[in-house]
């Protein structure tokens, strides 16, 4: 479904920790953000149809003159915040700010700044209008310009023991560098196409293997997981590629976990189970992701040799809100124990969530309580080539 009309900010700046932080914070305030890091991002930016600009002065001149020409061609005046080292507000005139052919420059801000300062400016100057933007259209624009794979970044979120809080592993999460808030299920869907999804998944696997190798060298022998749609496990091209990767990196056996997701695309579960058994023999463990959606009933997972099961955060939150009895989640955890598998509670974001997860008796937890996903160089100092 299309998104509801909302404030859409185009951020023109270098890719950095600051821009990632800014995107994430504004999205939490229900302000959609797309980024231009280079001229290659222009097609996606135009499809985003922003109603405000936030731009670094130097980057604006280098990366986006063509984009500004497109945005101003219809004499559309977008409220614009410039970022530089000068903390000043440009005086606003009632009729115009700069000229009839330029976007409205409403302020300049020194970097770095707190996101709430920018959010207040956006709230003051941006008119939402009636236009809605479908994230799938943004994905299609990236595909059409052959920029989807190049735009995908891999970040890693920690997984923790519910007994003592220690880190017990990491999960690789796909993010679009220019639209971090887009859910991976939108990136990897029937709209994207199987071939692109396979290429993107294999790219993530290679990043995961690289991180596991670095962790082993630094004597942090922790498993790292990646997501894989169940439907992809019925595709010979992906399965053969995974076998080749496992054979080429046998030293990583036992430290790689494949989290199976299903979403709305049903796969033949017997084929999936057989593939998982074959990959397990090569050192790739299996996890059932988002239990409670897709592969959620026991009939669908009983034949899969899973080492781990992750309880979907929506079900966990329903339990926290007393809408689901503890016995329901307790029976899932008991089932995991009977299979010799670990149970993971997703969506732990507060001390209350942590206490409720511990009450369940689950093994591990994952969520924003311990922090957001981070690029690999935050975990491994010697990381190169990200």
Offer a few descriptive terms.
21% strand, five-stranded parallel β-sheet, eight-stranded mixed β-barrel
Q: Layout of helices and strands, plus pairs?
A:
Layout: E1 8-12, H1 17-28, E2 32-36, H2 42-48, E3 52-56, H3 57-63, H4 65-72, E4 79-84, E5 104-110, H5 115-125, H6 135-144, H7 148-151, E6 152-161, E7 167-176, H8 184-187, H9 194-217, E8 224-229, H10 236-248, E9 256-261, H11 269-281, E10 284-291, H12 298-301, E11 306-311, H13 313-320, H14 326-338, E12 342-346, H15 351-360, E13 364-366
Parallel strand pairs: 1-2, 1-3, 3-4, 4-5, 7-8, 8-9, 9-10, 10-11, 11-12, 12-13
Antiparallel strand pairs: 6-7, 6-13
Helix pairs in contact: 2-6, 9-10
Short description:
Helices cover 38% and strands 21% of the residues. The chain is an alpha/beta fold.
Strand content: 15-25%
Overall average pLDDT: 85
Order of helices and strands: EHEHEHHEEHHHEEHHEHEHEHEHHEHE
CA-based gyration radius? 23 Å
Instruction: Tell me the helix content.
Output: 25-40%
Tally of extended strands? Answer: 13
* Global geometry: globular
Q: Biggest β-sheet, characterized? A: 8 strands, mixed, barrel
Helix vs. strand class: alpha/beta
Distance between the termini: 33 Å
The low-confidence parts are 86-101
Number of DSSP helices?
15
């Amino acid at each position: 479904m299309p998104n509801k009309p909302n404030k859409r900010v185009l951020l023109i700046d270098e890719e950095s920790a600051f821009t990632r932080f800014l995107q994430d914070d504004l999205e939490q305030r229900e302000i959609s953000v797309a980024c231009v890091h280079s001229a290659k991002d222009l097609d996606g930016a135009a499809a985003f149809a922003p109603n405000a600009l936030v731009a670094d002065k130097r980057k604006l001149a280098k990366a986006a003159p063509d984009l500004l020409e497109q945005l101003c061609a219809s004499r559309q005046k977008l409220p614009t915040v410039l970022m530089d080292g000068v903390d000043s507000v440009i005086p606003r005139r009632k009729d115009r700010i700069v000229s009839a052919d330029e976007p409205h420059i409403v302020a300049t801000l020194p970097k770095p700044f707190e996101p709430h300062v920018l959010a207040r400016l956006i709230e003051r100057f941006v008119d939402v209008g009636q236009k809605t933007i479908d994230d799938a259209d943004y994905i299609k624009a990236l595909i059409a310009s052959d920029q989807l794979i190049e735009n995908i970044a891999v970040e890693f979120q920690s997984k923790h023991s519910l007994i003592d809080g220690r880190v017990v592993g990491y999960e690789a999460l796909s993010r679009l560098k220019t639209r971090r808030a887009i859910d991976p299920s939108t990136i990897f869907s029937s709209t994207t196409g199987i071939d692109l999804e396979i290429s993107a998944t294999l790219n993530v696997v290679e990043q995961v293997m690289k991180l596991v190798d670095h962790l082993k060298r630094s004597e942090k022998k922790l498993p790292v997981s990646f997501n894989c749609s169940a439907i992809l496990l019925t595709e010979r091209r992906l399965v053969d590629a995974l076998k080749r990767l496992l054979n080429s990196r046998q030293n990583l056996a036992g430290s790689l976990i494949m989290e199976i997701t299903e979403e709305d695309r049903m796969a033949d579960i017997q084929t999936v189970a057989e593939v998982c058994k074959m990959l397990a023999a090569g050192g790739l463990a299996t996890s059932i992701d988002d239990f409670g959606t897709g592969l959620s009933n026991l009939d669908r997972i009983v034949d899969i040799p899973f080492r781990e099961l992750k309880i979907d955060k929506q079900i966990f939150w329903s339990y926290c809100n007393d809408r689901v009895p503890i016995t329901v989640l307790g029976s899932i955890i008991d089932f995991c124990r009977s299979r010799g598998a670990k149970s993971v509670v997703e969506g732990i974001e507060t001390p209350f969530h942590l206490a409720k997860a511990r009450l369940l008796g689950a093994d591990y937890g994952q969520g924003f309580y311990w922090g957001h996903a981070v690029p690999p160089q935050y975990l491994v100092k010697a990381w190169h080539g990200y």
